[in-house]
Amino acid sequence: MEDKKRTILICRGTGCESAKSPQIQAALEEKVQGLNVEVKFTGCHGMCQQGPIVVVEPEDIFYAHVKLRDVPKIVESHIKNDEVVERLVYEDPTTKEKIPTYHDIPFYKRQKRLVLRNCGQIDPENIDDALARDSYAGLGEALKMEPVEIVAEVKKSGLRGRGGGGFPTGLKWEFTQKAAGDVKYVLCNADEGDPGAFMDRSVLEGDPHAVLEGMIIAGFAISAKQGYIYCRAEYPLAIKRLQIAIEQAREHGYLGKDILGSGFDFDIEIFHGAGAFVCGEETALITSIEGNRGMPRNRPPYPANEGLYGKPTLLNNVKTYANIPLIITNGSGWFADIGTENSKGTAVFALTGKIANSGLIEVPMGVTLREIIYDIGGGILDSKEFKAVQTGGPSGGCLPESFLDTPVDYDSLIEAGSMMGSGGMVVMDEDTCMVDVARYFLDFTEKESCGKCVPCRIGTKQMLTILEDIVEGRGKPGDIDRLEELAHGIKIGSLCGLGQTAPNPVLTTIRYFRDEYEAHIYDNACPAKQCKEFISYHIVDSCIGCGLCRRNCPVDAITGEQKELHHIDQELCIQCGECYEVCPPKVFSIEIHTGEKSTEPEPVLQVVTG
Amino acid sequence: MDQFTFTIDGQTITAEDGMSIMDAALANDIYIPYLCHHPDLEPVGACRLCGVEVDGRPMVMSCMTPAKEGTDVRTNSPAIYQARKVAMELLIMDHDMDCLACEAADDCDLLKVSAYLGIQPEQLEGLRPLGRQLPIDDSNPYFQFDPNKCILCGICVRTCNEIVGLGALGYINRGIETVVGTFGDKGFVDSICESCGECVVRCPVGSLAPKKPQLAAREISTICAYCGVGCGIHFGVRGDEIVSTRADRESPANRGSLCVKGRYGFNFINHPDRLTTPLIKKDGQFVESSWEEAITLVADKLSNYHGEEFAALTSAKCTNEDNYVVQKFTRAVMGTNTIDHCARL
């Protein structure tokens, strides 16, 4: 079977690259010399925790956690002898079942990959690979259409902005198309900044041509000649691949003068963002490209009328543009058949947190949170209880178990108090303190506030300070009401989306987990047993006196003779949890108590009078 | 200019094209609270206090929103009051409230808006004082900048950009750490700041404040004596001493602006070293003399020279008319074109 033509795909997304996939590629190329095998690299497959990922086609075999030393084995066993290397095959973290073929893996089986259609499939630095999978076919068709027809198609498709706001894309295109002005711009927002989110990065690294194609079609539709991609400088690989893609597109006549002989001129430049989260807000992004400090400004006027350099400007997210070629090629009807009534197409999420399979997923709009978390994500790690899921990044909300059957679409999530956002999804288990979660997200937004408007600049800091007080044992009666009052004031009063949504994590955790706030403030207890101020560690009778905890305690708070019950000195203990971690699971003699401090008797003050 | 009408709180208002809701309200003596707005500057909508309802749509910033014919504007509603109250409480908790020690205490917009909204100390309970202790920049000889009192309205930054055209000020850092500062966060004196004080006079609180200011008892309107521009200036006077200056907004020469000399350079007037009579050096000593004696002496000496033996240097502190006469004298009487002017002020 040696003469069978095979292709070995090595993932070289940022995650796999950092795990030495370029070296693996080089080693494979060397080893397969003389064999009928093509080795090529691709963008991200989405399941980064399994990386480096190597896929062998046509058998569709998915190897996970491949190391440099595994290369000879893959070549000798699989390529030369047709024997799949069982050891390297993907193992389901929940069922421990070995699943050799890529498309049988539950993580992928339930997905519908439109935006990510080429990620992990093509060499992003080779335009021929993209062309073989119909890249720029949509552009060819679009150039034969009238600009108004293109806008009508986009409108009919029901596509909404994938940056999180969910504004109807076609409407935005129509406004910009109709706006008066000879000079117009097309901007792509690639300033992805939510903690843990890497959807846009993966598309740019894995399929840059899809984004370029979407932008060129947009340029033709609104009569723009220049496009800019605002990409954060923290994405060097994405910028590099985009740059290569732009140059290759120019060479092939997809960018530049007289594109495909249509008479239409359009070019794209990359603008490096300097790392401010707020520059993902459209007016701040525009201000930043203009060379000023990236601070948002009031709308109206909207960018469609007065955007970059005061000219009509169309600004969409990476994933929005990546959808456009598909809509043009397959028709708006095809796209509108996917998803729900008001949310068409697919949603891309960076699934992370206490979940078995974390990674990048793409699902049709309307699937439930439960399907995403349990069917694709494989459920909660270590058989723990699900507690909450945060969607929409730091601007989103935390939804409890009762919302697991909520369909994932723009409107349902907003109604639940969260939002689609640009696509972060953090799953939390029973060990997560929801007050601390709110504090964590506020800590992020507070630091990323641009400082321009009062409610956001000072309000997020004020809320953060109160939250810090609560988790550190200084909470006061009235704090919950005060947080809610501040949150509403900040939501209604802030200038831009950052401030208007920053209170969401606080509001949703109060709404759904109010008892946890109350436990911290009134009962000196952290129900999740996470906040150090409220917990104490105790050794119970099952202790076998092995001494592991005593030896590992960094502050020598544990005493006890060998083979005898040990004891923790609460005065010395710093609640680091080391003893809990090292106590053998079979013994399991460390307990975490919470809510006990209030029972300690207050020292009695004696008043002595003469 | 076209006029139109709309209503504010049920009252019919006449406005002109291009007016914001706030412009129209203020022109009709309807107060809307604000801190970041200034009539000389482009609006930015940063303080979020001037929110109003337009046709039932909540919270548009009246400083940024053009007044529109036939609209129904409400400057107050429970929702708007609540948003303003929250913003104001936040500002107070982030502000150095040592008002007795503040230069702006008698003219502080923060206090004014706080009083308008009826903020009471007890309602601040439960909010945490953010109490930052940032260093005061007193590097400038004429004014100081106390970031602990700054409310980040941005009026100083916009003044330097839009009125002075210098751009010496900008924002540094993000979030609560955001401060107004100069390039590279150097002190004012080491920056490109020209110390004109335009930002200082517009600061709505005591963050940018003149050093050792004295309250004037009365004002005298005159023309600045420094140069030929002839800026209109109001001197604040206490007894027979000039203690403050204020630019004349009505003067066509300066339209409310002054330079560093006009604004801060008045100490020489009452300075003991100031010359009040001509001095003539006699036997190696300067001796006070009369103007007649001095001018006669100069005229006598000048009559001994002609042409290239003579040169004149005049002063920008003279009026244009004075300078005209000096150059005429130099060319016509002394017979030379060698005349220059300090003009380096």
Question: Can you give a write-up of this model?
Answer:
- The complex is a heterodimer of chains A (610) and B (345).
- With 610 residues, chain A is α/β, with parallel strands linked by helices.
- Helices cover 37% and strands 14% of the residues of chain A.
- In chain A, the strands form five sheets. A five-stranded mixed β-sheet of chain A has the order 10-9-13-11-12.
- The radius of gyration of chain A is 27 Å and the shape is globular.
- With 345 residues, chain B is an alpha+beta fold.
- Among the domains of chain B are: 3-124, Ubiquitin-like (UB roll), CATH 3.10.20.740; 214-274, ADC-like domains (N-terminal domain of TfIIb, Single Sheet); 305-341, no CATH class.
- Chain B is built from eight helices and 16 strands.
- Classes of the chains: A alpha/beta (610), B alpha+beta (345).
- The A-B interface holds A 276, 278, 293, 295, 297-298, 446-455, 457-462, 465-466, 469, 476, 478-479, 482, 485-486, 488-490, 492-495 and B 44-49, 51, 58-59, 61, 64, 79, 82-83, 85-87, 90-91, 93-94, 125-128, 130, 151-152, 154, 170-171, 173-178.
